[in-house]
């Protein structure tokens, strides 16, 4: 299994949105990607697409601290799929490369992670499938509205047009104006 540094080196070899689209198409087709563990190519590819558009990116990392165990030794508190800084937005990224639709659990975990962050931090959940109805209900009906959804073909659209950062701003503005976290970029 490659290290986080090796994954970061591998993904930075891809210097275009088209190369990332190709990588993600191989992931979606079920072929897998040589040298990448399950889910990692999707996770790193999303972040690299933002980085190519001049967003500042922090690749996946672990938060280490005292978990409160009996021995008092530090341990991993959480694993963060990445962070994107664009203009005045600070965004925690959660990527789910599942063959089935995403249910409530990853969204609830992301919400918990956001509670540990300063106010104004957003969450983005990326899935190559869709969000289930119960999960969509949870996102739409809990407060604060700080999680935005990217699913399926709209990721491909943003990559094809090299507009990940623009897509982030359109989703954010829609959430601010209408109070809805699931604006679909394909609606335009």
Oligomer: single chain
Would you identify the CATH architecture of the domain at 57-187? 3-Layer(aba) Sandwich
User: Roughly how much helix do the residues carry, as a percent range?
Assistant: 40-55%
Please state roughly what percent of the residues sit in beta strands, choosing from under 5%, 5-15%, 15-25%, 25-35%, 35-45% or over 45%.
15-25%
- Total helical elements: 7
Radius of gyration: 16 Å
Any low-confidence stretches, pLDDT <50, length ≥5? none
Write the CATH fold name of the domain at 57-187: Trna Endonuclease, Chain: A, domain 1
Question: Care to count the β-strands?
Answer: 7
User: What is the name of the CATH class of the domain at 57-187?
Assistant: Alpha Beta
Helix vs. strand class: alpha/beta
SSE order, one letter for each helix or strand? HHHEEEEEHEHEHH
Shape: globular
Instruction: Give the terminus-to-terminus CA distance.
Output: 41 Å
| Sequence of strands across the biggest β-sheet | 1-4-5-6-7
The major β-sheet equals: 5 strands, mixed
Average pLDDT, rounded to a whole number, is 88
